[in-house]
Amino acid sequence: MPEHQRVSRVGETMKEEIADILRKKVKDPRIGFATITSIAVTRDFRHAWVQITVLEGETAEKETLLGLARASGFIRSELGRRLRLRRIPDLTFQCDSQIKKTQQVLALLDTLDTPKEAIDSLTLHEPRDENAPSS
Q1: What pLDDT was estimated at residue 81?
Q2: Do the Cβ atoms of 12 and 56 come closer than 8 Å?
Q3: How many alpha carbons lie under 13 Å from residue 60 in its C-beta half-sphere?
Protein backbone atom coordinates (compact mmCIF):
# COMPACT_ATOMS: atom_id res chain seq x y z
CA MET A 1 0.00 0.00 0.00
CA PRO A 2 1.47 3.38 -0.91
CA GLU A 3 2.44 5.52 2.05
CA HIS A 4 0.10 8.43 1.25
CA GLN A 5 -2.90 6.09 1.25
CA ARG A 6 -1.93 4.78 4.68
CA VAL A 7 -1.52 8.32 6.05
CA SER A 8 -4.90 9.29 4.60
CA ARG A 9 -6.59 6.18 6.02
CA VAL A 10 -5.03 6.67 9.46
CA GLY A 11 -6.05 10.34 9.38
CA GLU A 12 -9.68 9.46 8.67
CA THR A 13 -9.65 6.87 11.44
CA MET A 14 -8.15 9.41 13.83
CA LYS A 15 -10.83 11.92 12.85
CA GLU A 16 -13.59 9.46 13.71
CA GLU A 17 -11.95 8.41 16.98
CA ILE A 18 -11.27 11.99 18.12
CA ALA A 19 -14.90 12.89 17.42
CA ASP A 20 -16.01 9.90 19.50
CA ILE A 21 -13.61 10.81 22.32
CA LEU A 22 -14.87 14.40 22.36
CA ARG A 23 -18.47 13.22 22.41
CA LYS A 24 -18.12 10.52 25.08
CA LYS A 25 -15.02 11.07 27.20
CA VAL A 26 -13.99 14.74 27.39
CA LYS A 27 -15.89 16.53 30.16
CA ASP A 28 -14.37 20.02 29.90
CA PRO A 29 -17.23 22.57 29.97
CA ARG A 30 -15.23 24.94 27.74
CA ILE A 31 -15.52 22.52 24.87
CA GLY A 32 -18.85 23.28 23.29
CA PHE A 33 -20.34 21.74 20.21
CA ALA A 34 -17.22 21.33 18.07
CA THR A 35 -17.26 19.55 14.73
CA ILE A 36 -14.09 18.13 13.25
CA THR A 37 -13.95 19.14 9.61
CA SER A 38 -10.58 17.72 8.60
CA ILE A 39 -7.29 16.38 9.87
CA ALA A 40 -3.82 16.59 8.37
CA VAL A 41 -1.22 14.09 9.53
CA THR A 42 2.48 14.17 8.67
CA ARG A 43 3.95 11.09 6.98
CA ASP A 44 6.01 10.20 10.03
CA PHE A 45 2.94 10.49 12.32
CA ARG A 46 4.66 13.00 14.59
CA HIS A 47 2.13 15.82 14.17
CA ALA A 48 -1.54 16.15 13.34
CA TRP A 49 -3.52 19.33 12.77
CA VAL A 50 -7.20 18.96 13.57
CA GLN A 51 -9.51 21.52 11.95
CA ILE A 52 -12.70 22.22 13.90
CA THR A 53 -15.73 24.44 13.56
CA VAL A 54 -17.72 25.89 16.42
CA LEU A 55 -21.10 27.29 15.50
CA GLU A 56 -21.71 29.16 18.76
CA GLY A 57 -19.64 32.27 18.02
CA GLU A 58 -16.13 33.61 18.26
CA THR A 59 -15.94 33.62 22.06
CA ALA A 60 -17.05 30.01 22.26
CA GLU A 61 -14.54 29.20 19.54
CA LYS A 62 -11.66 30.56 21.61
CA GLU A 63 -12.85 28.78 24.75
CA THR A 64 -13.22 25.52 22.82
CA LEU A 65 -9.68 25.82 21.47
CA LEU A 66 -8.36 26.41 25.00
CA GLY A 67 -10.25 23.38 26.28
CA LEU A 68 -9.04 21.21 23.41
CA ALA A 69 -5.43 22.31 23.93
CA ARG A 70 -5.76 21.38 27.60
CA ALA A 71 -7.33 18.00 26.76
CA SER A 72 -4.93 17.10 23.91
CA GLY A 73 -2.80 14.85 26.15
CA PHE A 74 -5.86 12.95 27.30
CA ILE A 75 -7.11 12.65 23.71
CA ARG A 76 -3.68 11.33 22.61
CA SER A 77 -3.70 8.71 25.36
CA GLU A 78 -7.20 7.60 24.35
CA LEU A 79 -6.07 7.40 20.72
CA GLY A 80 -3.14 5.26 21.87
CA ARG A 81 -5.56 2.80 23.45
CA ARG A 82 -7.84 2.70 20.42
CA LEU A 83 -5.34 2.72 17.55
CA ARG A 84 -2.51 0.28 17.10
CA LEU A 85 0.16 2.73 15.99
CA ARG A 86 3.81 2.91 16.95
CA ARG A 87 3.55 6.66 17.37
CA ILE A 88 0.50 8.76 18.24
CA PRO A 89 0.94 12.26 16.79
CA ASP A 90 1.01 15.49 18.76
CA LEU A 91 -2.39 17.12 18.24
CA THR A 92 -2.83 20.76 17.32
CA PHE A 93 -6.39 22.04 17.17
CA GLN A 94 -7.20 24.89 14.80
CA CYS A 95 -10.39 26.63 13.76
CA ASP A 96 -11.50 25.97 10.21
CA SER A 97 -12.18 29.35 8.66
CA GLN A 98 -13.81 27.93 5.52
CA ILE A 99 -17.34 28.21 6.94
CA LYS A 100 -16.75 31.86 7.90
CA LYS A 101 -15.46 32.61 4.42
CA THR A 102 -18.46 30.89 2.85
CA GLN A 103 -20.83 32.88 5.05
CA GLN A 104 -19.09 36.12 4.08
CA VAL A 105 -19.40 35.32 0.37
CA LEU A 106 -23.08 34.45 0.79
CA ALA A 107 -23.66 37.70 2.68
CA LEU A 108 -21.98 39.64 -0.10
CA LEU A 109 -24.10 37.87 -2.68
CA ASP A 110 -27.22 38.74 -0.71
CA THR A 111 -26.27 42.41 -0.72
CA LEU A 112 -26.17 42.50 -4.50
CA ASP A 113 -29.37 44.08 -5.67
CA THR A 114 -30.03 42.89 -9.19
CA PRO A 115 -33.19 44.42 -10.64
CA LYS A 116 -35.64 42.03 -12.26
CA GLU A 117 -35.45 43.96 -15.55
CA ALA A 118 -31.72 43.30 -15.75
CA ILE A 119 -32.28 39.59 -15.25
CA ASP A 120 -35.06 39.50 -17.84
CA SER A 121 -32.92 41.31 -20.39
CA LEU A 122 -30.20 38.68 -20.20
CA THR A 123 -30.41 36.39 -23.19
CA LEU A 124 -28.59 33.19 -23.71
CA HIS A 125 -26.54 33.09 -26.84
CA GLU A 126 -26.69 29.83 -28.68
CA PRO A 127 -23.35 28.29 -29.55
CA ARG A 128 -22.17 29.18 -33.01
CA ASP A 129 -21.97 26.38 -35.54
CA GLU A 130 -18.49 26.39 -36.97
CA ASN A 131 -19.63 24.74 -40.23
CA ALA A 132 -22.30 27.33 -40.94
CA PRO A 133 -21.40 30.05 -43.42
CA SER A 134 -20.69 33.37 -41.76
CA SER A 135 -23.00 36.25 -42.61
Answers
A1: 94
A2: no
A3: 12
- Map out the domains of the chain as residue ranges: 3-99
Contact 52, 93 (CB under 8 A): yes
pLDDT tens string 13-63 = 999 999 999 999 998 888 878 889 999 999 999 999 999 988 877 888 899
Spatial contact of 95 and 52, defined as CB atoms under 8 Å apart: yes
- Measured from the Cβ of residue 44, the count of other Cβ atoms closer than 10 Å reads 9
Separation CA 47–CA 4 (nearest Å): 15
d(CA 80, CA 101) in angstroms, rounded, equals 35
> In the CATH hierarchy, which top-level class contains the domain 3-99?
alpha beta
What's the predicted TM-score (pTM) here? 0.71
